[in-house]
Backbone:
């Protein structure tokens, strides 16, 4: 039975999927102190799948799915326990049984690009305002070097 988190049918975990997930989940860690009860594993996995499918930030998680920090902690706990690797392997095995995978052929894809805010001239130094050469010059005609010292007077047009 799926939970009612107000996400719509597309984001709810099916009972069949949840049965597969429950097989690979580690037993819950023992509580060190009294406090709130542990979030249900199915609710935590629903929230994790929702974040992974939407690509949203952890802090933007709808409150109906639980506290973002709790869900992130559970994600880290399960990642360290190898839950997601086990699910990936199980999915590959199931796909291989139904459709078949040609394991003799493999491909690798990747891209290397410059970091979006990596700077233009001083790659190893921080990006402080006024460092880039294409930015407007300060109003007194004096330019600063990368350390912040004045370099001299700008030539007037």
Residues:
């Amino acid at each position: 039975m799926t939970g009612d988190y107000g996400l719509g049918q597309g984001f709810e975990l099916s009972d069949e999927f949840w049965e597969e997930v429950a097989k690979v989940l580690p037993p819950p860690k023992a509580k060190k102190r009294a406090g709130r009860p542990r979030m249900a594993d199915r609710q935590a996995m629903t929230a994790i799948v929702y974040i992974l499918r939407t690509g949203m930030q952890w802090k933007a998680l709808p409150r109906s799915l639980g506290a973002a920090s709790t869900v992130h902690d559970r994600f880290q706990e399960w990642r360290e326990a190898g839950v997601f690797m086990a699910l990936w392997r199980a999915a590959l095995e199931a796909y291989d049984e139904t459709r078949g995978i040609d394991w003799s052929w493999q491909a690798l894809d990747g891209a290397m690009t410059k970091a979006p805010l990596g700077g233009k001239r001083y790659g190893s130094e921080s990006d402080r305002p006024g460092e880039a050469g294409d930015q407007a010059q300060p109003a007194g005609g004096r330019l600063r070097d990368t350390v912040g010292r004045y370099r001299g007077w700008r030539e007037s047009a």
User: Anything to note?
Assistant: The chain has a mean pLDDT of 80. Helices lie at 15-24, 41-54, 68-81, 83-98. Residues 74 and 80 are 10 Å apart (CA to CA). The two ends are 75 Å apart (CA to CA).
